[in-house]
Amino acid sequence: MSARIDKPPSLTCVITIPGLPVSQARPRFARLPNGVRTYNTPEVTNYRALVQMCAAQAEGKPKKPWDCPLAMSIHVFVPRPKSRPKREQFPDRKPDLDNLAKLLCDALEGIIYTNDSRVITLLTQKSYDANPRVTVDIAPVEVTS
Fold first, then answer.
1. What pLDDT sits at residue 26?
2. Where do the domains of the chain lie, and which CATH numbers do they carry?
3. Whole-model pTM above 0.85?
């Protein structure tokens, strides 16, 4: 079985999240008298809320969450630090792409798709740009056998 990523333009959802991206951090733990509670940092919680707000207003957002195989493309734009030479085209520092992709996939669940397990193709990339943002393109995939 192979996945052919032929997506009609009308079925592509484009989400743009302004500002510096925040990666999913490891959960924090708090001791309580009756056990342990896990929680995320306020920075992660606020960024997840921003992602969900941008997704709700996204161009091409489906009327109800997709429940089919999906292709997702994530492009992260971060500002170039003044200490980095201009010949370097791609940032190889934070944020970690895998942790950022996890946060985005989890945050979009229930808004764009029913479950993040429906994403069968994931492309991530980081680039330098003076305007920090994250763009996410999601589209149904036609699976052929």
1. 63
2. 2-144 (3.30.1330.70)
3. no
